[in-house]
Design a protein that fits this description.
It is a single chain. This protein has 134 residues and is an all-alpha fold. The chain has 2 domains: 4-69, Orthogonal Bundle (434 Repressor (Amino-terminal Domain)), CATH 1.10.260; 70-111. 61% of the residues lie in helices and 0% in strands. It is built from 7 helices and no strands. It has helices at 4-17, 22-29, 33-41, 48-58, 63-66, 71-86, 89-108.
């Protein structure tokens, strides 16, 4: 679990890496620069809505502040989330099926095949039976 100091340090580091000033961040969340500086130092609280606007300004998911997610991983997560949200319901269903199949394969140690499995069909179009000749 992250302490408040660690979370705020991460916020400050991310802001500086992105080259964003306190003035820009204060505008992003709709407060004065002095108030924002207090929030980043921990002497004033940051509301949930402000955390969301801060994350959007830094182009990272909100969880990036509160977990041990690397910046590259946080950026990838953000890209995936935005892409997923743009999909139709049918597209989302397809992505989730693919992800679930991949995760099942990872957990079982099986390899994920590039080719879909196709059942053998007899000359009548029905699935061929696997009866042994006796």
């Amino acid at each position: 679990m992250n302490t408040q100091e660690e979370v705020l340090k991460k916020l400050s580091t991310m802001r500086k890496k992105k080259g964003l000033s306190i003035e820009i961040m204060s505008q992003a969340i709709g407060c004065g620069t002095g108030e924002y500086a207090k929030k980043e130092k921990g002497t004033a609280p940051i509301s949930t809505g402000e955390w969301i606007r801060i994350a959007e300004s830094l182009n990272v998911p909100v969880c990036a502040f509160f977990s041990n997610v690397s910046m590259d991983s946080a950026k990838d997560s953000n890209i995936l989330l935005h892409g997923y949200n743009r999909l139709s319901a049918k597209g989302r269903t397809a992505i989730m099926a693919l992800l679930n199949a991949f995760l099942r394969a990872q957990w079982s140690g099986a390899k994920v095949s590039r080719k879909p499995r196709v059942k053998a069909r007899g000359s009548n179009g029905r699935a061929a039976s696997r009866r042994s000749a006796a």
